[in-house]
Queue: 3 jobs
Job 1
Amino acid sequence: MASEKVLQAIERQDWFQPLEEGLSRAVDRVYDSMGPRGRAVRNFLHGVWLGHPLHAVLTDIPVGAWTAGFVLDVIDELRGDRRSGRPADAAIATGLVTAAAAAAAGVTDWRHTDGGARRVGLAHGVLNLAAAGLYAASLVARGRGERRTGRSLAFAGFGLAFASAYLGGGLTYSRRIGVSHAAAGGEPRDFVAVLAEEELHEGAPRRVDAAGVPVLLVRRGGRVEAIGEVCSHLGGPLSEGRLEDGVIRCPWHGSRFSIHDGSVVDGPASHRQPCFETRRRNGHIEVRAASAASGRAGKSPAY
């Protein structure tokens, strides 16, 4: 497929690496400078409170505004209908303002990507930055009365924004950035034995297999908690993470989840982990998918 070839070509550009590293350090410095507030700002921009990445929501606004501006500019260009000129200016300005918010969320998410997807994400951001620059120049030209120049700059900006959106779609649908990587579907509806009781030690995370689904077991104070073992962010092994006060930290990018209900405590993850009920029977620990009746949040697993 042509889209896959484009993504692979970008992923092979090793000369991106210094820029990647420099931008990554700059993002870290910004959040570090905020002190304790940095964590709250990061979680907000990751979309922890929303249940999926905030960036996906914010990008619709500038794209929609710039598309409206494009249509109005085309009408102005073809028909000389000056009544469409001012609304086009307003749409472009709206797109610029909201693009800044989308960029803040996007670069916050990008900081916690790896490999080829990180490179494609950088190209996606650079194209958006260039598009925003052209739109800003377009507004300046329009303000000077050079409307035809302004429209030409806006048309070029729209083309770059379209190309950037193309890469963004590749990141989501081909590289699965921004979607949940936690094992979903196929969770056992009935209890299945996964481990002998004596093999699960207090406070020691343990990966088990429940009918082909990776599950994380943790014994705390005599209770056994169970959530999906594959991190929803980018598929990290939670069983290799650090457990602190009922919260497991992914060893790959630092996402933190409650082992009681799978909820996200800290990003970059925004999708919660699947939650399982547990019980002890005949010397074994058994698990099944959390039922709708018991709920996924605030409910204790069965024993």
Job 2
Amino acid sequence: MPRPIKKAVFPVGGMGTRFLPATKATPKEMLTVVDKPLIQYAVEEARAAGIEEFIFVTGRGKTAIEDHFDHSAELEALLAERGQTDLEALGMLRLPPGAVAYTRQQEPLGLGHAVWCARHLVGDEPFAVLLADELVLAETPCLAQLVTLYERVGGCVFALADVPREQTQRYGIVDIARDDGQIIEIKGMVEKPRPEQAPSTASIIGRYILQPAVFAELDRKERGIGGEIQLTDSLARLLGAMPFHGLRFTGQRFDCGSKLGFLKATLAYAMKRPELRDELSAYLNDLTRAL
């Protein structure tokens, strides 16, 4: 039986330049889909998958994330005066004391470097990595689906989604050994290949279960695409040392690192809210006719 996954790493040090000017003073992970910031969706997904320790790899200007997951005595007192004492019903997430840790990524050297920065907090345990700008709307949270597969196969497990071949240069792409339509056995992977060089169109989309052996590979600090320390490159060097599997998860994925993906996510999540659905649907119908 593989060791359980109890820790999750959230790389949140990026500058979010694609969303300027909104992200000039606000972390991109704090942009809201309906009424929750992106990072809260990721943390809730992790908690639903059994994660007990939450590790944030931050950067300059990210203190709003720390404040968001802290208790606010003043706000809670104000809400109590109004009779609003059920914070969960208000969508406010309270994590247990000591369950949250923060470390800084002082240089923007890529996802692999961000994960490496969490090495001392993770220790010698398997762990999850969640990218907040990848949002997955699913009945069973995406990470929980990965954990279920991991408990069967061990090793490293990734969430996969098929992308148009012309978009392979945006993602880490896996080379497929076996594919039953849902579970993929991985024999190779490459970061951001050109379409004609991509071994498949199955891309890794920001949900990982990793073994601590990856830290030794990341410690080599080898630069890849864009001069950054790429997580995909370090994982590729572990192929053959442990099982690697990908899961075509069940759910709707939104790339909230793009403006269009963010807008689509906002509409999809709003339509799942009973108090918003009917009026929003009527407005969208009217808007479509007006255009």
Job 3
Amino acid sequence: MWQQIEMMVRAKDCAELEDMLMESGGSSITLQDAEDKPVFQREPGESPLWETSTVIGLFAPEKDLRVLLATLQFHPLVLNRDALRIKLLKEQAWEQNWMDDSEPRQYGRRLWICPSWQSPPEPEAVNVLLDPGMAFGTGSHATTALCLRWLDQANIRNKEVIDYGCGSGILGIAAALLGAYKVHAVDIDPQAITATVDNFSRNGIAQRNIAVYLPEALPKLQADFLLANILARPLHELVDHFATLVKPKGKIVISGILEDQAGPLIETYRHWFSLDKPVTEDGWVVLSGTRRA
């Protein structure tokens, strides 16, 4: 049986306690929310934590943790010292459990996101093969779900699409499978570019139908659709650039927006775009609109 120690700490103290657990022979460290308070990434590259976090250290069965446990029970940064205990975890087939719990998800009428190891429940539907748990997004977050539902109802066949901030490529893949003739996928992270290429290939999308770029390499073009599921600040900063990338009467879809961020973004984008009514889910917003002539 594996051994586990959990403790509550302030966000600013997590790193110090993580280091202590690793130096004491920890095999892995996990951070969780200790008070059920959501936290959102608001800036690129930011790694926000909950104000009070649970730090969980996992240790091999043979590791003697008595000295570490005694040290933590008197450590000033540990908030729940009286509750500190060593928990024993049974061996489990974690990967198989994770796979068993992963189910296909439907977005709108036609569009499904399916784990690669499962048969799509509706073979004749538009099925995007994408494995859950990927770092760059698989549709489970509300912002991605909002964009996928918008794509499902859009007339995108034979259109040219830009997926700006492509991550895993999920929106671009959905667009291609829904009939877009060309998808330009853009991201600031080279690893996201690699993930996008791999996922396009997994979904059987021909190379002639896709192109991937870092932002500075994106050529001058005007697409029929631009999708950007990123963050509020870059959405503000990129509005003029996005306007040059969308054809007159072309469509824009932006998300990654909290409800209190929607108003200022509407004001920013209405100069270039005639905007539709915002759509919200779980405190997140998707904005869509048409490029003014």
